From TrEMBL:
InterPro entries: GMPPB_C (IPR056729), Mannose-1P_guanyltransferase (IPR050486), NTP_transferase_dom (IPR005835), Nucleotide-diphossugar_trans (IPR029044). PANTHER family: SUGAR-1-PHOSPHATE GUANYL TRANSFERASE. This is NDP-sugar synthase. Residues 10-242 form the Nucleotidyl transferase domain. It comes from Streptomyces botrytidirepellens. Pfam families: GMPPB_C, NTP_transferase.
């Protein structure tokens, strides 16, 4: 049985390109896009620190140069942070192996690993305790979902041991469980060192099935508290709103939980209405009579008078014209949506694009 250290260390996988989140990730890596007023990564780091983690290695790749200038050595969060950059994309397993030299754990000690795009209420300490109590080689956080077809299924036996990894089943016969891989793990250090170096490796498709076939002990821990994959703009906006509303737990939200979060230096007209966990970023401005519900307005953006914004994401320095309607839309950094437009149902306006007044009354990505 593995003995848990008082403060396990962790790896955070933050190298993805965030393609599904574009245009928000054109200039900003996905973990650095603000959620509830701070880069999303801040919430993950703060929750790890609250669980007793002190040393975290960030596995970076896309726009890697952004992370260290913002977080530095981590001391402001009570952490010691290190950064390792992939020169070529290595996949989840390859990224884990690539940072192994920065770990301090012994071969039989546990290392926490988190995907950089998951917002969760996971009891991190309970996952480590489960790993150590069961003597597992690898432990996985599992969560239950209503429709598991978009995910990899992870069935377990009565003791919680993983019995298989089933990739994205489609037929009713293939859906043997509602448990999915939720993107947080505990690896024994020796398992990390055994991952092949200097080539792409997927933990989901290669490492985990290989370990299972070799007879290793893979333990699942079902924790069905709050869980959300922030891979799409709609999910990201929802996650940010849930942080503000207090539905998703984080010690890093810069203010009280409630219907709105207005950052210092933002300006909001007295008769503007902000609801549903809306965030107004620093130096942003909201005009008279505007209504914003469940949305994120990033730094320096402007929402002019009478605009209606719902479940939308407005990039840094963007401008939404008077009386314009945004429902489920994304406006990239520096874009201008002129007055009297109407954008709905997943429309994405690219960074720097200029939409003239009244040019779009309704559009969809369907």
């Amino acid at each position: 049985m593995t003995k848990a250290p008082a403060t396990p260390e962790a790896i955070l996988l933050v190298g993805g390109k965030g393609t599904r989140l574009r245009p928000m990730t054109v200039h900003t890596p996905k973990p650095m896009v603000p959620a509830a007023g701070v880069p999303f990564l801040t919430h993950q780091l703060a929750r790890a620190r609250a669980a007793g983690v002190e040393h975290i290695v960030l596995a970076t790749s896309y726009l890697a140069e952004v992370f260290e200038p913002y977080f530095g050595d981590g001391s402001s969060l009570g952490l010691h942070l290190e950064y390792v950059t992939e020169e070529e994309p290595l996949g989840t397993g390859g990224a884990i192996r690539n940072v192994a030299s920065r770990l301090r754990s012994g071969p039989d000690e546990p290392v926490l690993i988190f995907n950089g795009d998951i917002l969760t209420g996971l009891d991190i300490r309970a996952l480590v305790d489960t790993h150590c109590r069961t003597g597992a080689d690898v432990s996985l956080h599992l969560t239950r979902v209503t429709d598991p077809r978009a995910y990899g299924l992870v069935p377990t036996d009565e003791q919680g041991r993983v019995t298989a990894f089933l990739e994205k089943p489609q037929t009713p016969e293939e859906i043997v469980t509602d448990q999915i891989n939720a993107g947080a793990y505990v690896f024994n250090r020796s398992v990390i060192d055994a991952i092949p170096a200097d080539r792409p490796v997927s933990v989901e498709r290669e490492t985990f099935p290989g370990l299972l076939a070799a007879g290793a002990h893979l333990q699942g821990m079902v924790d069905s508290t709050y869980w959300l994959d922030l891979g799409t703009p709609q999910a990201f906006v929802r996650g940010s709103a849930d942080l503000v509303l207090g539905r998703a737990p984080s010690p890093a939200v810069p203010g009280r939980c409630g219907d709105r979060l207005v950052l210092d230096t933002a300006t909001v007209a007295g008769d503007a209405k902000l609801t549903g966990g809306t965030v107004i970023g620093p130096q942003a401005r909201v005009g008279a009579g505007a209504r914003i519900d469940g949305s994120t307005v990033l730094e320096g953006a402007v929402v002019e008078e009478g605009a209606e914004v719902r479940d939308s994401l407005i990039g840094a320095g963007a401008r939404v014209g008077a009386r314009t309607v945004l429902h489920g839309a994304v406006v990239g950094d520096g874009a201008l949506v002129g007055p009297d437009n109407e954008l709905r149902d997943g429309v994405r306006v690219w960074c720097g694009v200029d939409i003239p007044p009244g040019a779009v009354r309704f559009s969809s990505d369907q």
